[in-house]
Amino acid sequence: MSNNLLRILENKEMSIEELEKLSGISIKTIKKIAFSKDYNYKILTVKKICDILEISFKDFFDI
């Protein structure tokens, strides 16, 4: 399942490194989520990202 993480970060003028600092999620995990179409997402990790970015799951995923 693809997602819009890179586009959302760009729109919010936030880097992956900034998201790592705010979320406590490792940069390795964030990059896997951002660049891998077959990454097995943990729902709590995605929720944490969505909360920090102030977006919905619908906005995060291409649904």
Q: Separation of termini?
A: 9 Å
Class inferred from helices and paired strands:
mainly alpha
Query: Main sheet, how many strands, which sense, barrel?
Result: none
According to CATH, what is the class?
Mainly Alpha
Count of alpha and pi helical runs: 5
Number of domains: 1
CATH architecture: Orthogonal Bundle
Q: Give, in order, the helices and strands.
A: HHHHH
Share of residues in helices: 55-70%
CATH topology: 434 Repressor (Amino-terminal Domain)
If you compute it from the alpha carbons, what radius of gyration comes out, rounded to the nearest whole angstrom? 10 Å
Low confidence ranges:
none
CATH superfamily: lambda repressor-like DNA-binding domains
Rough outline:
globular
Question: What do the pLDDT scores average to?
Answer: 90
% residues in beta strands: under 5%
DSSP summary, beta strand count? 0
Descriptive notes:
- This protein is mostly helical and 63 residues long.
- The chain has one domain: 434 Repressor (Amino-terminal Domain), CATH 1.10.260.40.
- Helix content is 62%, strand content 0%.
- It has 5 helices and no strands.
- It has helices at 5-11, 16-23, 27-35, 43-53, 57-60.
- 8% of the residues are buried.
- The mean pLDDT is 90.
